[in-house]
């Protein structure tokens, strides 16, 4: 108690002084800006009209082709571009948005899933007296509060624990975290607090115990990033913006200004990626909001312009939910190489990341084995030795490219800006770059303000503060109960629909097919262990999903949660989409191949397959080899040296278990390293070595064969569901 009193005294004296210096300096400016904005909105705002139904993609493309001239054309459908579209259209500007892939297909779907101000940025602001860093943190904390308000179904506060292993760090971190609360002011989610060692272990039992002094818990926000991005884009579309995914900008259109004789950007030549059709979209102002691809669009405007984007790759991994408590994250403030690692519960799984390494700009970033193992090593440093952190428990892995930028408006063009940058070129192209997910709305506001000034557009004030995103306005935490009662959905499925679609969840429930079971009455799952149901596929098409990857990665998050489960769901997803979109058999095959390629390279399946290859070394002890040979020969009765589906079926029939041939093929294919349709003894021993080392977990063949051996005389039923293992 005495030590805690000392800590609190430190906060009141040291923390209060620093917070006062920084906080009061910004408070007046902040209140003046937003107070003035509020009064303008109150006096001038007109009621906004929202479409009751979402326009189809075809009608959106028609609007792009047929509109004589838009006020604003936005290139890029990530969080920032979609935010710009929503800001512009709600100001009364005719607005168009084009995205060459899918909404949120890039960086915006590959984040740490946090809505935060940035504790580490506040530390830098204080230690270096960096006013810009402080201002960025304050702005982000304001935007955090706004985002939690306008999309309550997609976001929520999350407590994050900062474990402390040295006594002197406790007051140091306590002051820093309390300053974080103080800078947030009235928008602080919940007050941070100190935990004793025993209480910290009670809340986070997986934590490493030795040398633990205590912990500090603070609050930030968490969200479903891809669905949040989509909600922004769909809300813009409902307010009248012509938004189209899979629409690529081929080149910028220019005209000569009759007054100055200068060349001015006046639109873009676009191509429908799905059909190949090209058309012009004309606009008074063109905004470049393409994230890592900022420079490629800038060079369409002026070929010799220097690059401003400094791309950095951040890798994340997903592990089973048992690695973390259901509602408590973990922050490692100083990894072995000085970076920050988050370890967070997300969608009933555990997400860990991120790395920060220089990279080349690409549409298809690939997580490397080196980065995956770095994250696993850091996780091991903080978890109890009782918890075996296995490489095989990595269920998915991805890499996102963070577009750090240098400011072309600054004299020092080499220094990286941690804040966002808005730049207007000589020809009128407006570029918004840098920044962070949390501040997308204020970035959009600054961008549209700059566009209005630079192009003399007639526009009302910004209206996006407090403007609900699609699904948010009619949502409540108990909405899922109505879904259960009115439609007969499973409780878990109903909660998922409520927390994904908000008040639009009823539209998804109406599409759900009858199961034919006593319970649930409707809602056939795509895979048994996840609450995604088939009617979401049909609804995804209404939400502009055009490919199978759109569904597994962004309309659902299956690819980000468990790449193997996503792979198993693909045939049914493609079957449903093919029926609705009238795909040919050839088209279905192409979609399956593209989706499998996406999972293999971008979601970590490649890294998984490299854990077990036909070149893997067998390092089992002689006793283990004999034990596993005996198990193998129980299936290989004929002594062929390999087992096939027929051999497995024969053993299963002897214990009265039936598994369909397709499932058996999938089970054997996981271990069939040379892909010859059979599992050889050597392959089986390589599998057992990989399992023993922790490189592979949850192998259904290994579980099945072990269970068959143990129960061959008891004739018990054997479960072959995935056991929580991963890549």
Largest sheet: 11 strands, mixed
- The geometry reads as globular
Instruction: Return the CATH topology of the largest domain.
Output: D-Amino Acid Oxidase, Chain A, domain 2
Number of strands: 21
How far the N terminus sits from the C terminus, by CA atoms, comes to 46 Å
CATH architecture of the largest domain: 2-Layer Sandwich
Whole-angstrom Rg: 27 Å
Sum up the structure in keywords:
single chain, 727 residues, alpha+beta, FAD/NAD(P)-binding domain, D-Amino Acid Oxidase, Chain A, domain 2, Helicase, Ruva Protein, domain 3, 4 domains, 11-stranded mixed sheet, 8-stranded mixed sheet, 43% helix, globular, disordered N terminus
Structure, explained:
The protein is of the alpha+beta class and 727 residues long. It has four domains: 57-110 and 227-306 and 407-455, FAD/NAD(P)-binding domain; 113-138 and 153-223 and 312-402, D-Amino Acid Oxidase, Chain A, domain 2 (2-Layer Sandwich); 478-610, Helicase, Ruva Protein, domain 3; 616-714, Recoverin, domain 1, CATH 1.10.238. The protein contains 25 helices and 21 strands. The strands form three sheets. Strands 3, 4, 5, 6, 11, 12, 13, 14, 15, 16 and 17 form an eleven-stranded mixed sheet that branches. β9 and β10 (278-288) form a beta hairpin. α12 crosses α13 (491-501). The model is unreliable at 1-45 (pLDDT under 50). It comes from Podarcis muralis.
């Amino acid at each position: 108690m005495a030590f805690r009193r000392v800590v609190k005294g430190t906060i009141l004296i040291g923390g209060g002084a620093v917070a006062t210096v920084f906080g009061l300096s910004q408070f007046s400016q902040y209140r003046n800006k937003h107070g003035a904005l509020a009064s303008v909105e109150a006096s001038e705002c007109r009621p906004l009209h929202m479409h009751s139904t979402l326009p189809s993609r075809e009608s959106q493309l028609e609007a792009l082709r047929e509109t004589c001239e838009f006020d604003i054309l936005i290139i890029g459908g990530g969080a920032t571009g979609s935010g710009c579209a929503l800001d512009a259209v709600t100001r009364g500007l005719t607005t168009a948005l084009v995205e060459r892939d899918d909404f949120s297909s890039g960086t915006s779907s590959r984040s740490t899933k946090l809505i935060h101000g940035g504790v580490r940025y506040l530390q830098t602001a204080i230690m270096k007296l960096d006013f810009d860093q402080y201002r960025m943190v304050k702005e982000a904390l304001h935007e955090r509060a706004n985002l939690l308000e306008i999309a309550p179904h997609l976001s929520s506060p999350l407590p994050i624990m900062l474990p402390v292993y040295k006594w002197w760090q406790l007051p140091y971190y306590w002051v820093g975290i309390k300053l974080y609360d103080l800078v947030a002011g009235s928008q602080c989610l919940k007050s941070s607090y100190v935990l004793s060692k025993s209480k910290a272990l009670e809340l986070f039992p997986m934590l490493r115990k030795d040398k633990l002094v205590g912990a500090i818990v603070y609050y930030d926000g968490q969200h479903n990033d891809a669905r949040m991005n989509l909600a922004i884009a769909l809300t813009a579309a409902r307010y009248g913006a012509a938004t189209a995914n899979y629409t690529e900008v081929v080149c910028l259109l220019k005209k000569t200004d009759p007054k100055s004789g200068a060349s001015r950007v006046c639109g873009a030549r676009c191509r429908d990626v799905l059909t190949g059709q090209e058309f012009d979209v004309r606009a008074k102002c063109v905004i470049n909001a393409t994230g890592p691809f900022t420079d490629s669009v800038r060079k369409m405007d002026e070929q010799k312009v220097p690059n401003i984007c400094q791309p950095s790759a951040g890798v994340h991994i997903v592990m089973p939910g048992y690695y973390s408590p259901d509602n408590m994250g973990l922050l490692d403030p100083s990894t072995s190489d000085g970076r920050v690692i988050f370890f967070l519960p997300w969608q009933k799984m555990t997400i860990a990341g991120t790395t920060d390494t220089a990279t080349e700009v690409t549409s298809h970033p690939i997580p490397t084995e080196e980065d995956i193992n770095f994250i696993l090593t850091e996780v091991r440093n903080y978890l109890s030795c009782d918890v075996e952190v296995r490489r095989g428990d990595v269920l998915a892995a991805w890499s996102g490219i963070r577009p750090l930028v240098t400011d072309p408006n600054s004299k020092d063009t080499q220094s990286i800006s941690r804040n966002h940058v808005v730049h207007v070129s000589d020809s009128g192209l407006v570029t918004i770059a840098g920044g962070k997910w949390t501040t997308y709305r204020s970035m959009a506001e600054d961008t549209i303000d700059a566009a209005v000034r630079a192009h003399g557009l007639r526009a009302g004030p910004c209206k996006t503060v407090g403007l609900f995103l699609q699904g948010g306005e009619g949502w409540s935490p108990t909405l899922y109960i109505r879904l259960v009662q009115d439609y007969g959905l499973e409780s878990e499925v109903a909660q998922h629909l409520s927390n994904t679609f908000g008040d639009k969840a009823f539209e998804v429930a109406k599409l759900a097919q009858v199961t034919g079971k006593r319970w649930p009455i409707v809602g056939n799952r795509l895979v048994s262990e996840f609450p995604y149901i088939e009617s979401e596929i049909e609804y995804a098409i209404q939400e502009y999903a055009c490919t199978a990857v759109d569904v597994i990665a962004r309309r659902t998050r299956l690819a980000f949660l468990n790449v193997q489960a996503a792979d198993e769901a693909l045939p049914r997803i493609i079957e449903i989409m093919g029926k609705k979109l009238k795909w040919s058999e050839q088209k279905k095959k192409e979609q399956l191949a593209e989706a499998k390629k996406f999972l293999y390279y971008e979601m970590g399946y490649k890294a998984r397959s490299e854990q077990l290859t036909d070149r893997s070394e067998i390092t089992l002890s002689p006793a283990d080899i004999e034990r596993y040979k005996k198990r193998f020969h129980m299936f290989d009765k004929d002594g062929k040296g390999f087992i096939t589906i027929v051999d497995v079926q024969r053993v299963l029939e002897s214990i009265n278990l039936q598994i369909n041939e397709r499932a058996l093929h999938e089970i054997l294919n996981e271990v069939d390293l040379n892909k010859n349709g059979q599992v050889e003894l050597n392959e089986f021993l390589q599998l057992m070595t990989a399992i023993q080392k922790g490189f592979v977990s949850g192998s259904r063949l290994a579980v099945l064969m072990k269970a068959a051996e143990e129960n061959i005389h008891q004739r018990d039923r054997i479960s072959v569901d995935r056991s929580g293992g991963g890549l």
